Amino acid sequence: MAGRGGSSPLELLAQIPLFRGCSKDELKHVDRAVTQADYTAGQVLCSEGAVGRELIMIIDGEAEVQRGGTVVTTVGPGDFIGEMSLLDGGPRSATVTATTDVKALVLPTREFWQVLDEVPALAHRLLRTLAERLRAMDERAF
Q1: Cα(32)–Cα(18) distance, integer angstroms
Q2: Residues 106-127: pLDDT tens digits?
Q3: How far apart are CA 18 and CA 13, in angstroms?
């Protein structure tokens, strides 16, 4: 993966909360598996109901998350989307559309599972993040 704006690839990965605390060796496993993607404002990063084929980690810019046509949140640098579809093989639960130009790192399904095998601590952080999101949704429901 190529660095952006003077930041090394490992520095970009280390900025994503999911990878904080990873060693340089662990980050190198992730670095080999990701590609950088650029989205323009208005471009859809993923569509509700579609098959999920990648984890998208936002490095720069913002995107709007919609469920059933209703905006539920905004995501930005350090946020990631698409993990649920990769974990359970189900359809995307939301549509995410860039509201500004977005730079992201993309981790395809096969590489996602390989990285989780190579960096077990990442699976722990992913589970913690999913639990936090579920708890927040549960609290909003009541």
Answers
A1: 16
A2: 999 999 899 889 888 888 888 8
A3: 9
Q: What is the pTM (predicted TM-score) of this model?
A: 0.84
Q: Supply 136's token pair.
A: 């927040």
50: tokens are 């579609």
* 111: enclosing H helix or E strand: helix 109-118
9-137, what's its fold? Answer: Jelly Rolls (2.60.120)
Q: What is the pLDDT of residue 64?
A: 98
- The strand pairing partners of 37, in sequence order, are 104
Q: Are the CB atoms for 104 and 45 separated by under 8 Å? A: yes
Strand order in the sheet with 102-108: 35-39, 102-108, 54-60, 80-81
Domain ranges across the chain? 9-137
